[in-house]
Design goal:
The chain is α/β, with parallel strands linked by helices. The chain is built from eleven helices and 17 strands. The strands form four sheets. Strands 3, 4, 5, 8, 9, 16 and 17 form a seven-stranded mixed beta sheet that branches. Strands 12-11-10-13-14-15 form a six-stranded parallel beta sheet, with helices on both faces. Strands 1-2 form a two-stranded antiparallel sheet. α4 packs across α5 and α4 crosses α10. The model has no long low-confidence stretch (mean pLDDT about 95).
Length: about 325
């Protein structure tokens, strides 16, 4: 099969490799679409994965080609999304059903081979069956959509509240869409330039410049950048008694000016972290809600995709994101 194999930092090769092993309780998925996450850029070009060689990619969807256990035979031929985190099922968080906070998790696309390949081995528990008619390019966005929903849930957004999202990446814009769907009366997305303003408008979000946002206070603020300046802006934008959710992955150490820290104290803000998304197989979760959104609101979600490449053009998509040569939201690749 063909796959993008990371042999070392910056050494990504599109090459023939062996089919993945499929142990008991696992399935082999033939990938139909795979999205590029912003975290794939440092993983491939700066920091590497947990071992080499590794096939990156954790946002993907496809069709079940084979299963290892006869009991799972009914899954063969089913279109599926994939929850990429593989919990240990032994730690306290797993025992409580908080699999996203597992202390000893495995992960498709970073700790083990992922979705930038024609075939991927996936635990059956991690398979998310899809309704008929959902395109693979939409299904491959289930992971970021679920992460965005998890952040809005962590913000405890209530009908009638005001919400600010700082960051115009795929997850930030998706968080704005979720906040609107949950009844927020006002949802602003802070965009740094005209290109980012246009991206937000593309999906129907209300985009504001940092200067416009500076004059407003919000019940909930979701920070989706991970920089000191964005975190400072989030704290300053929160209304007294408000909630700030920190979601952006930091590129380095975070420090805050004394005056900004004082605002946390004096406004009695609630600061919450968020990571990943809630998932528990077939039980109701962020993922089941995201699947329903694909079924009922797929047209709006599809507007998050700004670029689509065939599987042999994935490196072009990576270059757009790494070099920021043009505005983008979600860059998707199609497979097989």
């Amino acid at each position: 099969m063909k796959a993008y194999v990371l042999h070392a930092v910056g050494d990504l090769r599109y090459e023939e490799t062996g089919r993945p092993e499929c142990p008991e309780g696992w399935a082999t998925v033939r990938v139909k679409a795979a999205g590029i996450c912003s975290s794939d850029i440092p993983r491939i070009f700066l920091k590497g994965t947990y071992h080499f060689p590794t096939i990156p990619g954790h946002e993907f969807a496809g069709v079940v080609e084979s299963v290892a256990s006869a009991a799972d035979a009914s899954l063969v031929g089913r279109a599926v999304g994939v929850f990429p985190l593989i919990p240990c099922r032994r730690c306290d968080q797993c025992a409580a059903g908080h699999y996203e906070m597992c202390g000893h998790y495995d992960y498709l696309g970073s700790r083990r081979d992922g979705g930038f390949a024609e075939l991927v081995a996936v635990p059956v528990w991690n398979l998310v069956p899809l309704p008929d008619g959902v395109p693979p390019t939409l299904a491959a966005m289930l992971e970021p959509l679920s992460v965005a929903l998890h952040s809005v849930r962590r913000a405890a957004v209530q009908p009638g509240q005001s919400v600010c999202v700082i960051g115009t990446g795929m997850i930030g814009l998706a968080a704005a869409l979720w906040a609107k769907s949950l009844g927020a009366a006002m949802v602003d997305v802070v965009a740094r330039n005209e290109a980012k303003l246009a991206l937000a408008a593309r999906v129907g979000a209300t985009a504001v410049t940092p200067a416009e946002a500076a004059g407003r206070l919000y019940d909930a603020v979701i920070e989706a950048v991970g920089s000191p300046s964005a975190i400072s802006q989030a704290i300053q934008a929160a209304a007294p008694g408000g909630t700030v959710v920190l979601m952006g992955n930091p590129a380095g150490d975070i420090s805050l000016p004394q005056d900004v820290y004082w605002r946390v104290l004096r406004k009695q803000l609630t600061l919450r972290g968020t990571w990943n998304s809630a998932y528990d197989g077939a039980a109701p979760s962020d993922w089941t809600e995201a699947v329903e959104a694909l079924r009922t609101n797929g047209e709006a979600i599809a507007r998050l995709v700004t670029h689509t490449f065939a599987q042999d053009g994935l490196e072009r998509g990576l270059a757009v994101m790494r070099d920021k040569t043009e505005p983008y939201c979600k860059i998707m690749t199609t497979w097989n």
